[in-house]
Amino acid sequence: MARDRQIRIALGSFGRATLHLTAGPLVAHAHAEFHLIFKLGGADACFKVDGEQHRLGDGCALLINPWATHAKLPQEGEPSLLLALLLEPQWLGDTLAADHPAVGLRFPQPLVRMDAPTAAALAALAGCLAHDAGDGPADCEAALAGLVGQVAARHVQRRSMTEVLASARPLDYRIKRAAEYIRAHVWENPSVETVAGAVGMSRSRLFDQFKACMGISPQQYLDWVRVSIATRLLAEQQASISDVAHQLGFSAQGHFTRFFVQHLGLSPSEFRRVGMTGAARAG
């Protein structure tokens, strides 16, 4: 159960909830999901979101929108006990009765202070995750929905389609093709040069246009696709970790493990072990 690391993971239709004692950094990355991070104990943790540094301390929450580039910065001394929620936009839209949640819902600012009801909802979810699967029929998804509802009531901006269109990034059919190429060829771990050649662009032009249209680099998009597939395959428990590494184009299992730790803060073996036998799975 990896009690010394205090790792708990719940997987479900909502996405992923991770309770984790950590001091390590996470590389700059981005993803299609909403990301909520709370500090439950230990040292404050510092993050960088879209180039701006934020210190996550007691009574605060870090709210990260889809495709916002973010990283956890290195820290010395005492680790931080963090609860991180990676929420699927469709689940969030269903929970909040919102249409087009991926673009219609936004957190106006990353770092916010929690009020008493939100702190109580956070404690309820943390308590659910802190119990092993065999300790009781705790309904983690209900607790998670309660916390998300409290956060959303105070910190989510609902945007009309007029507002969405007014703030939309430029469109480029070549970037759409590039993203499709990356998803179709993820197993080959294509280089940026390969993707650029496939859509008839130079490497530098692809990088600039991808950043302008998507808000992230082609490599960050590829990394997100690889992490998404890796977590799904590891949760399914059918392929070995070395097989998952091979399928995703890593030349060695050690390279895959390092990549996984850099993005999630735990190893593939820890994710597989705790994700299946730790917190009760919701959904």
UniProtKB/TrEMBL annotation:
Record key words, sorted: Activator, DNA-binding, Transcription, Transcription regulation
SUPFAM superfamilies linked to this entry: Homeodomain-like, Regulatory protein AraC
Pfam entry (one): AraC_binding
Top-level taxon in the UniProt lineage: Bacteria
InterPro entries: AraC-bd (IPR003313), AraC_XylS_family_regulators (IPR050204), Homeodomain-like_sf (IPR009057), HTH-like (IPR037923), HTH_AraC (IPR018060), HTH_AraC-typ_CS (IPR018062), Tscrpt_reg_AraC-type_HTH (IPR020449)
Membrane spanning stretches: none
Domain HTH araC/xylS-type: 176-274
Family annotation (SMART domains): HTH_ARAC
Name listed for the protein in its UniProt record: AraC family transcriptional regulator
Species of the source: Cupriavidus malaysiensis
